[in-house]
Amino acid sequence: MLERIQLLRNIGQFDSVNAGAQLPFAQLTLIYAENGRGKTTLASILRSLNSGASELVLERHRLGAANPPHVVLGFAGGPIQFQNGAWPAPMPEIAIFDDAFVAANVCSGVEIAAGHRQNLHELILGAQGVVLNATLQVHVARIEEHNRTLTQKSNVIPAAARGDLSVDDFCALPADQNIDAAIAVAERNLSAGKSADAIRQHAEFLPLSLPAFDVAGLNDLLARSLPDLEAEAAARVRTHLRSLGRGGETWVGDGMARIATASEGHDHQVCPFCAQDLAASPVIRHYQAYFSDAYAGLRASINDVGQGINTTHGEEVPAAFERAVRIAGQSRTFWSAFTDVPELNVDTAAILRAWTAAREVVLTTLRAKAAAPLDRTELAQETITLITEYDAHRSVVDTISNALQACNAPIAIVKEQAAAANLAALTADLTRLQAVKTRHSDPVNAFCADYVAEKAAKTATEGQRRQARTALDNYRQNIFPAYEAAINTYLQRFNAGFRLGSVSPVNTRGGSSCSYNVVINNVAIAVTSDAGPAFRNTLSAGDRNTLALAFFFASLDQDPQLAHKIVVIDDPMTSLDEHRALTTVQEMRRLLARVSQVIVLSHSKPFLCQLWEGADPVGRQAILIRRDGAGSTLAAWDVKQDCITEHDRRHALVSAYLNAGDPAVERRVAAALRHILEAFMRVAYPAAFPPGMLLGPYLGICQQRVGQQNELLVQADIDELRAILVYANRFHHDTNAAYETEAINDQELTHFCTRVLAFAKRG
């Protein structure tokens, strides 16, 4: 951001001015000066800094000054000086609207020349597009130079040495040192054509995969027990089972199934071993509760999971995986001769080791669980580690499988091409290569080498040109329609009465240009014409300046670096009607929130006052360029002394309408009603109605606070304000798309004017 003007010496009206060092600039800086005091000089200084064109400063060397111009501008990053006839570096983040912008991009007086359309083309493209266009023009110039050189070098090659071949065909034959390799390639191509059947029959890559271990499911199973088993029974049984040693629980569980068999023919349960009565046994009841149906179901679940792991991870599964890897390797060897195929580095031995280790430790854990089903446990950290190592191999296999699967699409193309191979053409190519050596003999070889080198250089440049043109065309395909829409949006906001049509790029031999029509009453008017309607005789000076402003604002909209821009606008009010002046102010206010800084220079105090009144007091500054002897100097400007508030004007307008009823101003009066109420609320309730607040949302806040300690308006005032707002909103574009054609009744308007003024008098 420009923070201050520290020194202006020997330039324009400024002799040796350093007063600006005491005048800090703000995000919005307004500079007022009468005509001829130095506004254009300041704009030219900033334009010179933007482009690096030192002549813009040098040509304004103060008449009679012995020393050259010297300028020091204070920026946030430090001072920048124009000294010894130059700036240290251009500053492209400055965007300037002034007479020079209009003359360069729109028209000179009433005429539009080719240069205007070329400059407008660059303006529409923006910095990125200008670079693309400049790159294209460099390649175009280089190709023309290549053509001249090729003509000279082709004339040196004897026609008798070429035979029936053209210069290009003759010189296109490969050099001796590459002929063997070229012949080998041709032979491989011919071999591929002859191998069409094998290519057609050979399968594409099949997916490779390894099954996973369900760690969460295993942990859930290992943690299962019998929640309904009484703690006393479980404790007694487990104490007894531990005394039996390893496998005791399984042994007792099997024995419980034999009690029924041993008890046949008895009216009581007997021991299957000694046939004693078990009715008095202190643990038999606990055994029965312990080894219940749920117990049997849990053991069955454990067995099912173990069998599932054996099925998924055992038997022929690893062998099938090894076969799949071997087949994939064979397919890679075959297809790599015809297309790019990634390496197949699968260490099946390491995978099988990790797989087996993980499988065995999981099965061991399940066996332990089967031996003591009611013991809650989980996978040991060692088991998790082995599964993780195995999963790492699974991930690698998945990656390799995906890479091989991605080759199936190119393989399909290889099959299609092999099926359509022309063996005769491939044979002819090989024959042609075998005849190459007849072309390589001195001095013809040297002539051809020169021609081929130049031809290759031209081909490379043509490729660069195509890339540059494609990049430019792609960029323009998006930017030009967006720019046309943006221009017409601004023209509509400016109430221009015309719009632009067919804004499009044009490629000419002299470079790229821009074409457009001016559309008036749905009739397209050419920008240039020797007779009949044209730009020069259909647009007024105000229209032309409005068009220039629309071009400028639209170009800013397309700038991806807009947030970093310092926008300088010099006297935008030239030839603008009053309604366009207001719109210009509104657009500048919108712009202020989107850029780093806005600097406005003007000789119109009312215009600058409008900008001042709507700006944030913290982020605004006003500067005056005043006469100082025979020159000019900078000083602080007290804007308040020159401003008459818009609220005062609106209030006077409505009051005058109530007194005189002038129908010529009734639409302005209707539009002023909402602004009067907003201004009143801004003063009456500054905390609740901050700048930018609208009446609709504010009424919602008031309604929420009715009857509360922080009440703003009583219900009667809310109802009155809402009723007035319904009427006033009919005459604003943000609440009524047809606000400009909304019918106005004098009696109704007078009624609401009276109510608005009465409301604005309340305490």
TrEMBL record:
Signal peptide feature range: none
Domain Protein CR006 P-loop: 250-736
Pfam families per UniProt: AAA_13
InterPro entries per the UniProt record, alphabetical: CR006_AAA, P-loop_NTPase
Protein name: AAA family ATPase
Organism: Tistrella arctica
Lineage of the organism: Bacteria, Pseudomonadati, Pseudomonadota, Alphaproteobacteria, Geminicoccales
